[in-house]
Amino acid sequence: MLMNNVCHAKIGVFGGSFDPPHISHIDMAREIMRERGYERLVFLPSHNPPHKTLQTPDMHRLNMLELACKGEFEICTLEMDTDEIGYTADYIPKLKAIYGHDIEYIIGGDSMASFGKWSRPLDILKMAHILVASRDSDDENARRAISAYDDSEKLGITLASYKPSSMSSSSIRNKIRLGYDVTSMVDASVLDYITNNNLYNEYSNIKAQLGCDLSDKRYSHSLSTALFAVENISGTGLDYGKVMTATLLHDCAKESDDNDSLISYARANMPEIMADYQYNSSVLHAYTGMAKAMRDYGITDIEILTAICYHTTARVGMSELDKLVYVSDKLEYSRTFPTVERLRSIYYNNHNDGFIACLNNCYQHLLDREADIHQLSIKAYDEYVED
Of 154 and 286, which is predicted with more confidence? Predict the structure, then answer.
């Protein structure tokens, strides 16, 4: 593994989606430029990356990046000027043609960890020196990935001394969608642009109605449940919109005074699900929530509706969406019960183990209280915990 701390490159190229650009992007650019002694640092906003789908149009991402850079750094629109899939191996020769051969390509530690899955990684290493700016949480995986390449295969891979903050654009988008304060993460001019152009605001109608249906405390819990879920969606293969909608609405009927008509609506429209229904005051809102989501919010997706219905009891044969909504309701960030940190730690390490631990914790809590336990919960406990 080549860990060359001497930089011969005159220009650093920092690629990414920048959706949105945040304070850590700019801080990192400044610190890396100082550490590596670049003459110039160039931001390279992506257009059509192979590993993700960008929903924010190029125009908005470019405008936000210009506001964030404030003329301090250059921006190259090479990727945005083409409709091709944005493979780094194809763009490096073009970057060298523009800026000369002395470029250093900057990637994050998470990107280095998955570098072997990139298109033609060995070609990239032969064409450009790579600088890895790794967060502390990504450092070990990044070092392991670097060590997998023989020195003869590369011009050089260097692990930067500077450690970026754990700030991420995806988390910022989540927080903006849910109405959380991000003024410490995003430049004020960028935040104004986001507000003025109504970006990351896809769930405003649901939130507006939910705010009318719930008390401030219950509404905050719903937002926190949604935030926990979408920030732990990685690796689940679940649809973001379904996760966001199901978690936002999981308690939509928690404070309803219309339970009788909602149960009647559920019996008429979802008879198969209601065949398992037995009255229990602590789980009533899950069934009425399913009905309210369908009747009042126009939700027809059966996966979303069943995830709402079983978020309290659990059930045998839970889908991944069912499990995520169940866990997120229990472990969302405002929860403070004695075992919550332990359960979160288990869940972060392994989602399925975390789900089982949450199910077991809830079941034991009900036993300790000598509370009635729903038959669905008993069957779920036998299925997932006992077995």
Answer: 286
CATH 3.40.50.620 placement within the chain: 11-167
Q: In CATH, which of 1.10.3210.10, 3.50.50.60, 3.40.50.2300, 3.30.70.260 is domain 203-386?
A: 1.10.3210.10
Q: How far apart are the first and last CA of the chain?
A: 46
Q: Where in the chain is the domain with CATH 1.10.3210.10?
A: 203-386
C-alpha span between 196 and 182 (Å, rounded):
16
> What are 160's two structure tokens?
């930067």
CA–CA gap between residue 223 and residue 252 (Å, rounded) = 11
CB 83 within 8 A of CB 48: yes
Q: Which two tokens stand for residue 44?
A: 């390279």
Alpha-carbon distance of 46 to 189, in angstroms, equals: 21
Regarding predicted confidence, which is higher, 346 or 152? 346
Model pTM score: 0.91
Bigger pLDDT: 61 or 114?
61
The CA distance from 318 to 326, in Å, is 10
Residue 6 pLDDT level (bands cut at 50, 70, 90): very low
**CATH number, domain 11-167:** 3.40.50.620
Per-residue three-class SS string for the chain: CCCCCCCCCCEEEEEECCCCCCHHHHHHHHHHHHHHCCCEEEEEECCCCCCCCCCCCHHHHHHHHHHHHCCCCEECCCCCCCCCCCCHHHHHHHHHHHHCCCEEEEEEHHHHHCHHHCCCHHHHHHHCEEEEECCHHHHHHHHHHHHCCCHHHCCCEEECCCCCCCCCHHHHHHHHHCCCCCCCCCCHHHHHHHHHCCCCCCCHHHHHHHHHHCCHHHHHHHHHHHHHHHCCCCCCCCCHHHHHHHHHHCCCCCCCCCHHHHHHHHHHHCHHHHCCCCCCCCCHHHHHHHHHHHHCCCCCCHHHHHHHHCCCCCCCCCCHHHHHHHHHHHHCCCCCCCCHHHHHHHHHHCHHHHHHHHHHHHHHHHHHHCCCCCHHHHHHHHHHHHC
Q: Is the model's pLDDT at 2 over the cut of 60?
A: no
What residues contact residue 9 under an 8 Å CB cut-off, 6+ apart?
Answer: 36, 38, 102, 103, 104, 129
